[in-house]
UniProtKB/TrEMBL annotation:
Protein name per its UniProtKB record: Heme biosynthesis protein HemY
Molecular function, one GO term: nucleotidyltransferase activity
Pfam families attached to this UniProt entry: ThiF
GO cellular component, one term: cytoplasm
Residue intervals of the THIF-type NAD/FAD binding fold domain: 118-358
Domain of life the protein comes from: Bacteria
Length: 360
């Protein structure tokens, strides 16, 4: 199939002797254009109806004489700055997929280029197999987003049943589901919402140890941890994902602080590294040794519907980076926080690998 380079639907600003390409936020490309040839080329490329070999003739009709080699070099340069995609690249997908995932495909246009069309990202998502631990506020929201994205398979693991209080923030359930296992209700919701789409495997089980996570995760592409018990669950998931050789993403709400982070085994610092770093920091600060918790923070779930959806969105976005490799994960070994009661102040704190980590 002949590739027809097409300019992405970006803003193009013309100024005396130069053109400015405004693609992604915070990105601008400045091109010299004293004779107007660059503007003419961009106009031709916006049509997306010619191969590189056909571009010289189109430019000639606009009054510019260029060679095919010059056109190839110009197209390669524009592709390098991320402003081109292949015209008609969605045609490789079946019509039903194109209709269903139109907005997803246009999102992938942000990352697409001549060598990797948006359809390829969608196919990667369709091939994904996600182990999702937990079907509560965050977990059910992640499930809904994964189904909307067209993930191929989700293994949903939870031990709880649907209660009336869940309906404030868990929108995969309704009153007819009260008393049912969450995983069964969520599986049925997915089947209704996306016929012939994501396959949801319901596993009614309480996750307690590393071996169980390894068993549940064999063959998976990624783990999303949406449970907060036992207390060391993140360390257990961390160890299991090293055994499986797959990344994991997690998040939660601590009092009024929303947080999320991820681990890519062998690439990023891991959760055990963070634990060791914290222990070593405590050793270097002896003044902490005399402190004790007088009143421990109780387990209170104050995640409203918008908070749960916000958290699920951040976690699913990070999971999507791993599953499709649109761009590098932003939270691999990086603690992201959003202070809900402090003006939505956002911070990011990377942690280093620890040389004493037995996993890394």
């Amino acid at each position: 199939m002949r590739v027809m380079p097409q300019l992405k639907p970006i803003s193009v600003i013309q100024r005396p002797d130069e053109v400015i390409l405004l693609g992604r936020a915070l990105e601008a490309t400045y091109l010299d254009d004293a004779d107007g040839s660059v503007t003419a080329l961009l106009q031709v490329l916006a049509e997306g109806s010619r191969t590189v070999a056909e571009l010289p003739a189109a430019m000639h009709r606009r009054g510019f004489t260029v060679t095919e080699d010059e056109m190839a070099a110009a197209v390669a340069a524009l592709d390098d700055v991320g402003v081109l995609l292949g015209a008609g690249a969605d045609a490789g997908l079946d019509p039903a997929t194109r209709r269903r995932h139109e907005s997803n495909l246009r999102f992938y246009d942000l990352y697409a280029g001549l060598d990797r069309p948006s359809a390829q990202f969608q196919r990667a998502m369709a091939a994904a197999d996600v182990l999702l631990l937990g079907a509560g506020g965050m977990g059910s929201g992640v499930l809904q987003s994964l189904v909307g994205l067209g993930a191929g398979r989700v293994r949903l693991v939870d031990f709880d049943v649907v209660e009336e209080k869940n309906l404030a923030r868990q929108f995969a359930y309704d009153h007819d589901d009260l008393g049912r296992p969450k995983v069964d209700a969520a599986r049925d919701w997915a089947a209704r919402y996306s016929r012939d789409g994501t396959v949801v495997e319901a596993v009614h089980e309480r996750v307690t140890d590393v071996d169980a996570i390894v068993r549940l995760g064999r063959g998976a592409s990624l783990v999303v941890c949406a449970i907060d018990s036992p207390d060391d669950v993140h360390l257990r998931v961390n160890e299991a994902c090293f055994a499986l050789g797959i990344p994991f993403v997690t998040g939660g709400l601590l009092y009024s602080t929303l947080f999320y982070w991820s681990v890519e085994p062998g690439v990023s610092a891991c959760r055990m590294c963070l634990e060791l770093n914290r222990a070593e920091q405590g050793e270097r600060m002896p003044e902490l040794a005399g402190q004790s918790v007088v009143l421990p923070m109780g387990r209170v779930n104050r995640a409203t519907g918008p908070v749960a959806q916000l958290l699920a969105g951040f976690v699913t976005m990070e999971a999507g980076r791993y599953l499709t490799r649109t761009d590098p994960p932003v939270a691999a070994g990086v603690y992201h926080t959003i202070e809900l009661a402090d003006g939505m102040r956002a911070t990011r704190d990377p942690w280093p690998r620890n040389p004493r980590c037995p996993l890394c």
